[in-house]
Amino acid sequence: RTGAWNSSGVILFAPGPSSALYRVQDSGGESIQVTQLNAADGEVQHAYPSFLPDGQHFFYLGLGTKAGGALDSRGVYVASLIAGEPAKLLLPGATLARYAGGRVVYLQGGRLWAQPSDPARRELRGVAVSIAEQVGLFTAGVTGVTGSFSASEGGVLAYETDSPTRSQLTWFDRTGRRIAALGAPGDYGDVALSPDGTRLAVSLVPPESSTRDLWIFDGPADSGQRFTFESGDKFAPVWSPEGTRVLFSVLANGSVRLFVKNADGVEGPRPLGADELGLGGFATDWSGDV
After folding, report:
1. For every residue of the chain, which 3-state class applies, written as one string?
2. Where does the pLDDT of residue 155 fall: very low under 50, low under 70, confident under 90, or very high at 90 and above?
3. Using CA atoms, how far apart are residues 191 and 169, in angstroms rounded to an integer?
4. What average pLDDT does this structure show over 198-205?
5. Long-range contact list for 217-223, CB < 8 A, 24+ apart?
6. How far apart, in Å, are the Cα atoms of 2 and each of 17, 60, 84, 112, 251?
7. Buried b vs exposed e over 266-287: b needs ≥16 C-beta within 10 Å?
């Protein structure tokens, strides 16, 4: 979830996908919790910390859950390393903020904004001005929607522009000869070929939805069938050795768990174990003896 490092050797970080922020000295030692999740309000994670010039106060993104289990940005908060000083919601709806040259630069609504601020009082001043449009957004797994930018004290801004994620699934033979295209161009990911080489499991975010689901293509001529329908984002499919089941991850309610489902799609998915460490379940392979 990225980290922040001040001039006094303090590093801020989130140790897991459903965690508050912790501090640790750059020389090592015990990690100490510095922010508190508001569980009563559905808050599930703090992420993307960034220090203010005094090295004691910092911005961070607060994330909660909404209908369907997807993560929801609550906004950018300002908090302190000083014990007993409460966090303050500074930018509702924003997803990332940095302090640079007397201004807070932040991302909201696909735009970068700059607003004068008083770092001593940790307050905004004046009027926010849009300084860049069509800033690239991405859903970072368990961290909700955020973007890529960096602002320096010298006034230089670097950011990534927005571009649609489109790819085309295509079958090739072993000589490199193109056989056929599968489905329409789209936001595909996590391509997994079945053990017998005849079927394909992929994750896809359709244009009409913001949720990633799994689809299965049954050969080069197939248009694809949706495989998962439950709430949350589904990704990282892995076929069983005999090709009759699919193991995959589901992001919902701020955590990632493993599920298994018969490849014929007749029955619903079954949870596989529990995430005892709170680190999320991500399968990469399936051994031949299970």
Report:
1. CCEEECCCCEEEECCCCCCCCEEEECCCCCCEECCCCCHHHCEEEEEEEEECCCCCEEEEEEEEECCCCCEEEEEEEEEECCCCCCCEEEEECCCEEEEECCEEEEEECCEEEEEEEECCCCEECCCCEEEECCECEEECHHHCEEECEEECCCCCEEECECCCCCEEEEEECCCCCEEEEEEEEEEEEEEEECCCCCEEEEEEECCCCCCCEEEEEECCCCCCEECCCCCCEEEEEEECCCCCEEEEEEEECCEEEEEEEECCCCCCCEECCCCCCCCCCCCCCCCCCC
2. confident
3. 9
4. 93
5. 217/169, 217/182, 217/183, 220/171, 220/179, 220/180, 220/182, 221/180, 222/182, 223/182, 223/183
6. 11, 11, 25, 19, 19
7. eeebeeeeebeeeebbebeebe
Amino acid of residue 273: G
Cβ-proximal residues to 33 (8 Å cutoff; 6+ apart), any chain: 20, 21, 22
Q: Would you say 204 and 184 are in contact if contact means Cβ atoms under 8 Å apart? A: no
Contact 44, 253 (CB under 8 A): yes
Confidence class of residue 71 from pLDDT cuts 50, 70 and 90?
A: low
Nearest alpha carbon to residue 255 among 45, 38, 37: 45
How far is 212 from 175, CA to CA, in rounded Å?
32
> Scanning the structure block, which residue is given the tokens 């369907």?
68
Residue 178 predicted with pLDDT over 50: yes
Residue type, 193: L
Beta partners for 217? 200
pLDDT at 140 (0 to 100): 47
The pTM of the full predicted model, rounded to 2 decimals, is 0.63
Mean of pLDDT values over 233-257: 90
Closest CA to 113 of 126, 71, 122: 126
Q: Show the tokens assigned to 82.
A: 């000083």
